[in-house]
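Entry 14. Ran structure prediction on the chain below.
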Amino acid sequence: MFKSGINLHSGISDFIQEKESVSILCAYIKVSSLQSLLTDSSIRQIVVRWLISDLVQGSSDLELFDFCQQNNIALYRNTRIHLKAFWDNADSVMFGSSNITKQGIGEIGNYNYELNGICHDISFEDKLFLQNIIAESELVDQNLYEKIKKIVEETPKPTMDYTVLDTSKTELDYFLLSQLPMSETPAQLFQIYSDPLEFSSEDQKYALCDLSLYRIPLGLNEQDFFELLADEFNQHPFVLKLKEHIKSTPYQSLHYGGVVSWLRNNTTTVPTPRSWELKRNQIVNILYEWICYFDSKFSWNRPNYTQVISYNHLST
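Output, structure tokens:
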């Protein structure tokens, strides 16, 4: 798998360089991004969408024509394509979501989240599908290029001001049930993180949820792992609010039913993966373990057959 910000750019570049002949079929192409992929180009033909609106708005570059002329690449136009594929004109194709643009294949800055993969044994029918797209595309020669260029230059560039609404978490997001840890203990999470193949697929799913929730990158040693996990868990709005609630009760403690009641009143349920549903009846137990693991002022015991979590401000 080739992921933006990690190995997507290098993966595409390696695929192109390793092949004797490559056809690119891609909706949007910026010349600077295409050049960043190449050293000794094996590209033989490119199919780009090149709707007039694409070119007027700057989604693709007209300069692609000159680039192809200089590098002996056949350039085709097909306004129906939306796919993004790199085909070796034989048995292998890399395909996915990434256009050849700064945001599409970029590895730094505000890049898009993109994902590509490679199939090395595509079928005869798959090859025909790709070949048919190329066959029904229109070759961009000098006359067609000049015609398109003239239309683009004469078309007023739209000046529409859109409200910018970025993706940002709200308080609601932090109080979804899916914001609760799923691994039984932080120690177990580290074990799965260190050697996932030693655990079941279900345990791996729970660990993936927790690593994502607490933004833990791969490759950390044990000390750095627990330092980052402790910081992320202890600063989570949900955890902070629950701990404050426990501290505000008359005996600074809360029994199992009290925690369940608090969860019911303070969390929002949304559709969740089946794997999370299997953990639902363990949520309180898991919360007890995590809170007490990362905050020595909290502890839990089981008097009278019910689990009670308590706060002791004198603890260190």
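The first strand starts at residue 2 and ends at 3. Will compare against last week's run tomorrow.
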